[in-house]
Design goal:
Order of helices and strands: HEEHHHHHHHHHH
Largest sheet: 2 strands, antiparallel
Number of strands: 2
Strand content: under 5%
Shape: elongated
Structural class: mainly alpha
């Protein structure tokens, strides 16, 4: 596991800067289209599109792992799988339900990109800090919905708040009589939070990091996945029936509170986002010019 972690960490720390480096024209420019119409190519929005397209393609090839920024997203891969196992699966393995996460990312990725274009076209600011704060809210909403699902499980027989444990379960063969499909919206809401949060964090780390520290900064972004997993393990003692209901509710509250605190502390950076981008762009140009002069 250590060697796998080292390998994945090295790849992710270098791959995301590599994606951003493929777009060399980061300064906005005026272009004339074939139909004679003039358009402005915004470097920041183009970089945003690159990362969104990558993340849209990612579910086609990725193996689902818990490499996410927020503890709420980690629930997708442990407690939500256990929750599905307490319900009527209709023959579907409970660990296969999480595949809807990838489906949700594929379906919602273009929708969210359209939302960005819609807001930008109407000059409505939805900066990276606001998007990350929105990610916390969506994760909180997903955990609130999971709380409701868990409550439905506990109010349904035959075992109520002890699923697959009571004598009526037939040695654990009979789940509580509630369809697993009621859990599906959790994955779609978490997917929105994942796109708003994970994609934006990767984009922000690349665009704001000094030219020679982009990989290092991206490595620290990946380190937050470690923190999220560690918090998930710390919560494992209470992730059991019937305490898991309270855990979901507390996670929902913490996520919403975190959204407010995060935006209160860092929301000011959205107002100077373009200025920060231009500073980084000038530093990069100066470095390139110096290298050319030396050669």
């Amino acid at each position: 596991m250590i060697f796998i972690g080292l390998g994945v960490g090295c790849i992710k720390a270098t791959y995301f800067p590599f994606i951003g480096d493929q777009y060399v024209q980061k300064k906005s420019q005026l272009l004339r289209q074939q139909n004679g119409e003039y358009v402005i190519v915004d470097g920041t929005r183009t970089l945003q599109l690159l990362y969104n397209v990558y993340y849209w393609y990612y579910p086609f090839t990725r193996r689902l792992t818990s490499d996410h920024l927020l503890t709420g997203l980690d629930q997708m891969f442990n407690n939500l799988v256990s929750q599905a196992g307490q319900m009527d699966l209709r023959g579907v393995p409970n660990d296969m339900i999480q595949a809807f996460s990838g489906v949700a990312c594929i379906l919602l990725g273009p929708v969210i990109q359209y939302l960005y274009n819609f807001l930008a076209g109407r000059k409505i600011d939805f900066g990276p800090i606001a998007r990350i704060a929105a990610a916390f809210l969506f994760c909180g909403g997903a955990m609130a919905y999971a709380t409701g699902v868990q409550k439905l499980i506990y109010t349904t027989g035959p075992c109520y708040d002890r699923p697959r444990v009571c004598a009526a379960s037939g040695n654990g063969e009979r789940p509580n009589e509630i369809q697993v499909w009621v859990q599906i919206p959790v994955y779609f809401v978490l997917a929105v939070g994942e796109i708003f949060g994970f994609v934006t964090a990767s984009e922000y780390a690349y665009s704001k990091a000094p030219q020679d520290m982009k990989t290092m900064v991206q490595a620290f972004v990946q380190l937050t996945a470690c923190a999220g997993s560690a918090l998930g393990m710390a919560l494992s003692p209470v992730a059991k029936d019937p305490d898991v209901l309270v855990m979901y509710a507390c996670l929902a509250g913490v996520m919403v509170l975190s959204a407010g605190l995060f935006y209160w502390k860092f929301g000011k950076y959205d107002k100077i986002d373009e200025e920060l981008n231009q500073i980084n762009f000038r530093d990069g140009n100066e470095r390139v010019s110096a290298e050319v002069s030396v050669v």
